[in-house]
Amino acid sequence: MKFIKIFKESLLLPQKKAMFQINRMEMDKIMIYLFILFMIFSLPELVSRLASWTGLGEEMNIIFQLIYFFMFYYLISSVLLLGVISFIAYIGRGVVYLANRKLHYGTLWKLTACSFTVPLLVFTFISFIWSIPDWYLFIFVIYPFLLLVRMIFIYPQRRNNQARA
User: Fold this and answer.
1) pTM for this one?
2) Which residues pair with 101 in a beta bridge?
3) Contact 123, 134 (CB under 8 A)
4) How far apart are CA 155 and CA 19, in angstroms?
5) Of 113, 132, 111, whose CA–CA distance to 122 is shortest?
6) How many CB atoms lie within 10 A of CB 157?
7) Contact between 80 and 108 (Cβ < 8 Å)
8) Taking phi first (over 0 means left), then psi (-120 to 50 degrees means alpha), and beta for anything else, what does residue 100 get?
9) pLDDT, tens digit, 9 for 90 and up, residues 106-162
């Protein structure tokens, strides 16, 4: 299955072989992988909400609690994380330009998205042990950014057109 391969390659980043394997994967597979990863990231909050029957959850059926969770937690956190991934990839465009490398935004986006695997899994495991706010996840944004910068410098430099003439 492709998702297991994406997961394995994401754990091997910033190795050159893993970067090129991720670059060859289709964007739709990466997006589905991300939404599965976001669902895993959301599990501690879902368990917490289903376990506590206070407030609004006290009067709601479990089906409505799942719908409420999906609409107001999973979708919002997914959109925010996709925005953060896009922003980091956009900053990576500037690093690519300054470093004179051969990378396009789509490749940067895929690499950034896959570099979020480790921080999201660490955050998920910590959340199962201790109750921590979701905004702590922004501390984990430093890792994908530094990993992206490292991966940019692994890619070959752009050839100078004047040197070939």
Assistant:
1) 0.83
2) 157
3) no
4) 9
5) 132
6) 10
7) no
8) left
9) 999 999 999 999 999 998 898 888 887 777 777 888 899 999 999 999 887 777 654
